[in-house]
Amino acid sequence: MIIKEASLIPFSLKLNSTFKNSKSNFSNRNGLILKLVDESGNSAYGECSPLEGFSKESLQDAEKELHDFCKDVINKSNENFFNLSYSTSVNFCIEQAFHSLLLQHNFELKSYYQQSKKIKVNAVIGLTNIEEAINLISQKINLGYDTIKLKVGRENPYDDFLLIEKVREIFGNEIKIRLDANQKWNCDEAIEYLLNLEQFNIEYIEEPSSSFCSNLKTADSTNIQVALDESLTDFQTAQEFITDSSINFFVLKPMMFGFEKTLKLIELTESINKFVIISSSFESAIGKSGLVFLAAQTKHNYAHGLDTSEYFVNDNCEDFYKPNNSFINFDINKYPPKFIL
């Protein structure tokens, strides 16, 4: 397979409203789409959209790397498309596009992956007031969702408590509640708050504390499962935490690791009976399609964080993986989708 064309398409997507968590606010997503065309005329796409406040590289840095790649790759074969040394969002972009080309060339390769899966997704409720949060949860439940992730870490922790109490009071134990504190609390605060929340049957809480050691101590001090997200700063660190810690849930934003290394981390967790949750960092429909592929490779039935379609005023192309009744249907024979930009 020889690459004959490589080009970049910038995009800027506006969110319907500003999304708030305990660390940052953002109202739009900017990024780049890489388009590769091989000698047979097959087209494939990858997305690069580093998330400010999380990714180490800026979009400007990533754009320079991708421009260099586009110049270097023309008329090259596929030997060096994996194990790349670019920044992680660029690696994800190139690997997603190249992987999509490979699947179009080598139909036998598809048999290596999960053929089909109904991927369960959770709804996400940002740091809003109790009345609005309850209204949003009710809408999601009416659409078939039974796993709700609540952003917590309000200035007054009692407001978090009141919201969770109200959710259980209104919706009962039929729904699963996840929490995400985005490292808002120190260790002592996290333990104190979570001991008060144990009564509400929380599935897990993401990153309650400000360091890995604090999160580990928190996990050992409460009956609520702790999940890691921001603590997973690079591939090697993630490997070590998965292998050596008592943590069971690992929330991966593939844009932070690259496409291939996310696959490797999924394989590692599966081998030791732990769980990767694939989480969107508000990618466009193109980046999201890669996340759906990755989520389909997990063997568990926990919900993934892929319910982002409705957040955008307009996407850059058709979203082939919108949830239906809280599930995304994945079929390897329909991957990659036929995007039109």
Can you describe this structure in just a few lines?
The protein has 9 helices and 12 strands. With 341 residues, it is an alpha/beta fold.
Number of helices: 9
Average pLDDT figure: 93
Instruction: Give the strand line-up of the largest sheet.
Output: 5-6-7-8-9-10-11
Q: Which class of secondary structure composition applies to the elements?
A: alpha/beta
Q: CATH superfamily of the largest domain, called what?
A: Enolase-like C-terminal domain
What Rg is obtained from the alpha carbons, in whole angstroms?
A: 20 Å
Number of DSSP strands? 12
The biggest sheet, with number of strands, parallel, antiparallel or mixed sense and barrel status, is:
7 strands, parallel
- How many domains? The number is 2
Q: Helix content range of the residues, please?
A: 25-40%
| Broad CATH class of the largest domain | Alpha Beta
Strand content: 15-25%
CATH topology of the largest domain: TIM Barrel
Tell me, briefly, the overall form. globular
Rounded to the nearest angstrom, the distance between the terminal CA atoms is 23 Å
Helix-strand topology string = EEEHHEEHEHEHEHEHEHEHE
Indicate the CATH architecture of the largest domain.
Answer: Alpha-Beta Barrel
Protein name: o-succinylbenzoate synthase
Pfam families: MenC_N, MR_MLE_C
Keywords: Lyase, Magnesium, Metal-binding
Enzyme class: lyase
Describe the structure in your own words:
Its EC number is 4.2.1.113. With 341 residues, the protein is of the alpha/beta class. The protein has 2 domains: 3-112, 2-Layer Sandwich (Enolase-like, domain 1), CATH 3.30.390; 116-334, Enolase-like C-terminal domain (TIM Barrel), CATH 3.20.20.120. It is 34% helix and 23% strand. It has 9 helices and 12 strands. It has helices at residues 59-73, 88-105, 130-142, 157-171, 187-197, 212-221, 235-244, 259-271, 285-296; strands at residues 3-20, 25-38, 43-48, 116-120, 123-125, 147-151, 176-180, 202-206, 226-228, 249-252, 275-278, 327-331. It has a 7-stranded parallel sheet with strand order 5-6-7-8-9-10-11. Strands 1-2-3 form a 3-stranded antiparallel sheet. Helix 3 links the parallel strand 5 and strand 6. Helix 3 (130-142) packs parallel to helix 4 (157-171), helix 5 runs parallel beside helix 6 and helix 7 (235-244) runs parallel beside helix 8 (259-271). The chain is globular and about 60 Å long. The mean pLDDT is 93.
